[in-house]
Amino acid sequence: QAKTQGGRRYAFFDIELRERMQRHLVLEQDLHHAAPQDQLWVAYQPIIDLRTDRTVAVEGLLRWRHPVHGTVSPGEFIPLAEESDLINSIGAHMLRMATHELAAQRQRHRVELRLNANLSPRQLEDPGLVSTVQQVLADSGLAARALCFEVTENAIMHDPSTAARVLHELRELGVSLAIDDFGTGHSSLAQLQRLPFDSLKIDRSFITNLDDSDDLRVLVTSIITMAHSLGLEVVTEGIETARQLELLRDLGSDQAQGYYLGKPTPIEELLPAHPLSCFPPRGPRLADSGPE
Ligand code: C2E
Ligand code: MG
Ligand code: MG
Ligand code: MG
């Protein structure tokens, strides 16, 4: 098929492009019904503290069960929601679901699990955000300190003064704040240092190639050192192997997240009937420490 003639290849691309545009349009339309028709759900991925080898938090990640297209990833539909003004209602819906589910799990299993939730640029600029957050905390009974918002550098740089004000307001409520995907945007630690962040998540792209790059190791080490000197906890994202986990532990990362430690799962599968059996999580070195 690679040897198809130019004309035919164009025709092929044309069909592919049209299909992609059609999918885009359909999904954008259908997204309006996603929340009302109960097609959205939250998957939870554990965040492990490397000092205790215990799950200290879960990141809530939206999923869309589309009646025709099956599971649509947030990488595809969050941008659509951002374009179409739906992001604020979908974001509020997500927060309602996640705070209620987590509050219930915390009670049922008597665990101090924090919920991390992502905020997109438009959500950060929504004048109703702070009151939405107050509302979902009050309704769910989840303590403010059990909630952490993750925002990317780009979300902050989009409108820095609004972002700064909103982040301070959120911090006032008692929630904590994390810089997400650090290293992929165009901010500096100097700029971020003025904002009330508690932790910094090093982007997965740094971790993926860590094994065979000394330069990358030096870079990650210096990010960790700088973050610590600014009083930020460091979380590394995208840990997929035991080797990466040990490396990041040695480099001084405080917490870690990734498929190796746990994939995003439905809330029912997050904590088994025996709550402590998933603390600490599986993994060769982790298994040594045994449950308490
Ligand atoms: P993120 O906040 O950086 O979330 C981490 C993403 O990396 C998730 O993808 C997660 O499944 C994936 N991931 C975690 N560990 C690994 C790993 O070891 N290897 C690999 N290859 N991937 C890993 P997901 O769930 O597809 O979410 C993508 C992005 O969509 C998120 O990136 C976040 O920016 C956005 N998103 C998800 N849920 C929400 C939400 O409720 N609200 C908003 N505003 N954005 C959301
Ligand atoms: Mg995140
Ligand atoms: Mg991230
Ligand atoms: Mg990301």
TrEMBL record:
Source taxon at top rank: Bacteria
Domain EAL: 24-278
Protein name as it appears in the record: PAS domain S-box-containing protein/diguanylate cyclase (GGDEF)-like protein
Upper taxonomic lineage: Bacteria, Bacillati, Actinomycetota, Actinomycetes, Pseudonocardiales
